[in-house]
Task: inverse folding
């Protein structure tokens, strides 16, 4: 059940799990690069965001290399990418920490993009979604794979008002780039 938030503008939280990463031997987790599939899927995620009309006013991105490259390849698909803030607290963050970061976003931002990692992102989407359109919640419960995009909508005066159960999961996309 959706908890009815206070009146305010329609806001969207767009959550993008980083694209598929490689696991090269001897490379620290924070510095893992994208795998071939990730370099193919990240631009597809950018195109999917544009086609869905969910381009952000601001992006918050984990400082991990795989998240930064996902952001760069996705944002390269848009004419003018929005500002991005590389946020160290998003790396390996759990849902409460992610929500804490989201609540610090200025009120003029109506569509926010988070680029980060599982399981925190998936847990955040589950916590915030009081309901979902079509089968989005059922699909989320099955899997939130790499390059997956969840779009949550809610009304509120500002990001500090976002609470668990207050949002509607309006889309769950899993874009994939062309296979060679």
Result:
């Amino acid at each position: 059940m959706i908890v009815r938030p206070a009146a305010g503008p329609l806001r969207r939280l767009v959550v993008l799990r980083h694209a598929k990463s490689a696991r090269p031997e001897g490379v620290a987790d924070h510095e893992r690069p994208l795998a071939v599939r990730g370099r193919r899927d990240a631009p597809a995620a950018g195109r999917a965001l544009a086609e869905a009309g969910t381009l952000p006013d601001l992006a918050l991105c984990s400082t991990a290399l795989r998240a930064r490259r996902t952001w760069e390849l996705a944002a390269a698909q848009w004419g003018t990418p929005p500002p991005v803030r590389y946020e160290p607290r998003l790396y390996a963050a759990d849902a409460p920490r992610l929500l804490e970061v989201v609540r610090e976003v200025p009120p003029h931002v109506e569509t926010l993009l988070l680029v980060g990692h599982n399981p925190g992102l998936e847990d955040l989407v589950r916590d915030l979604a009081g309901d979902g359109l079509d089968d989005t919640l059922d699909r989320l419960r099955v899997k939130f794979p790499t390059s997956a995009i969840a779009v949550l909508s809610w009304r509120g005066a500002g990001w500090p008002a976002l609470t668990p159960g207050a949002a509607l999961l309006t889309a769950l996309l899993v874009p994939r780039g062309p296979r060679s």
Q: What stands out?
A: The mean pLDDT is 93. Helices lie at 36-51, 65-75, 95-102, 120-128, 136-142. The longest helix spans residues 36-51.
